[in-house]
Known about the structure:
22 helices, mainly alpha, two-stranded antiparallel ribbon, globular
Amino acid sequence: MSVPRFKSLGAERLALIALSLVLVGAGLGWRQPMNVDEERFLGVALEMLQSGNWFIPHRAAEIYGDKPPLFMWTVALFSYLTGSPKVALFLPGLLSAATLTWVLHDLGRRLWNRRIGVIAALLFLATYQSYSILRTGQIDSFLCLWVALGFYGMVRHLLLGPAWGWFYAACLAMGLGIISKGVGFLPALMLLPYAFAVHQRWRGVVALPGQGWRWSLGLLWLLAGCAVWLVPLLVSIAQGGGAAELAYLKEILLRQTASRYANAWDHREPFWYFFVKVIPQYWLPLIFALPWLLPAWRQQLRKRDGRTLLLLGWVALVLLFFTLSSGKRKIYIFPALPGLVLAIAPLLPWLLKRWFHRRPGWRKVFTAVAMVWFCLWFVRGWAEPLKEGRNPHDTLMSEAARATGGAELVLINWREGHWLFARQPIVHFGFTGQPNADAAVYWLRQHPTAYALIPATELGRCFNAEQARKLDDTSRAEWYVVGAGADNGRCQPTAPRRVYHFAWADGPGNLQLAVQGSGT
């Protein structure tokens, strides 16, 4: 396979990293947060900046207990540094793309040679899932940074070591990955095929007998990574935490980790989901080579090649780990991709030679197709924001502010976009298990100068439709603004159990950086 050649290793590596930044960063600054995950995480990050509450994330003044805060910290930091939250949201993914490219190039070079390192980096950048994850403003685009560093440290120690410093760096990275998302420990699964390879005396693995105390120090480094957040959190709760803070601690440490894995309450899919619905699409174009790769891998394993065993064993364990959980999303198996790419890269020159040795002209066709493939990803990066357009929640909340004169707005059945793009003070009664229009009726009767944002499905029961003002639609509902005068008197609500007040200091409805003032 013809790959770019540079005189120096540094120039080669910088060129590959630059390519990753160009491809993944195409269109950066044009695109708004569009899906619920992006709206939620950007909103949480901006609320941290505004309130100064860094250890317990909040969503419109209510504690948000689904995820640890490291990703939101990073988005908040980039928002502060750049002054542009809609750019900051996507910078963690860009950082991950550069890191993964470096990791694969360096490991490919060290395990085989420079040519294989280049191939590994290019294969990763050519894979569809790399773009579907790294271009998003989601936690998984940042999680893979820590998984990549953990993976790198493990390989340096287990296959190229002994390198205890890299092993401890891997453990620290896994700890930081855990406080990004609970599955940050995934690189540790590599220890299982490693133990088997050492026991069976496979070639290429580094046996380290009689050093149990050094292995055990890895756990301390992992805990140190987790402690970056957990220790300040525990101290702050001990000094003044109430029932809500204690409930958050239980939620994030237990329910959102082990309980969610064992008995997921959303994204439930059958066991074959990844193999039928995800891999055939998101691991393109790699899967086209599987009919030739499988027997080649089998031959490598027969030769007791420890490199192949550890890489493929880790990929298989990551797939198994997520397959055993009833909750599955296409993004979950992305951490396995670097290991798969490294297992493919050394075989690709042999594979291309086998395909094209009697048809040399096809090698040029293959090179041209690869270049077109990369160009299409770059073009798509710029075209995607134009296709998506303006976030409908942005339009909706802008209309709501004009229709109400900026008065207090009650939200029911709301999504994160309503809060992120709000241009006026909002009132809500909790995100999970949201009450219906009765709660809005109660509030408007107590506060007649306020308004409520009501979906069409809830409008007619408690309000006169002819006195409501129709706003723009979103993908989920048609929306109306109503005032106290639209109350039809048919609903007799009781006081809601919880009431939350929130207002952006500087109007993140326009995605301006809000660092002054506080939510209430």
